[in-house]
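Quick question: who can interpret this fold?

. . .
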Amino acid sequence: MTIDHPEFPVTYGAGASEDLLHAYFKSLKSRFPDCKTSKSGEPTDHMDEPLGWECKVGLCGLCAVEIAEGAENFVPPDPGSPEMNTIENKAFLDPDPLKYRLTCVAKVKGPVKLKIPG
């Protein structure tokens, strides 16, 4: 997984059953072992690094990412998930799962390159 970000580019691995956001948290912990963590174990010192996070259930849209490469490697959105509705109505992006996903709920099965929408 690669996040193409002008200030904080990063490449990290994600397990098949892991959502992108929690794989990113693991990456932060490995890069910053002394990073403070919240009660749920997520890094709290690096909130400005490229992914924002809040809800972790696909409702706020803060973690929306643009798919630059590897859209075919995303697991399709769960039909019961609010992901595409959130992308359209909270992140104000095209609700196309081949273009945008929410890192808090999206899962991958192969390499992808992501960009921060903007």
Remarks:
- The mean pLDDT is 87.
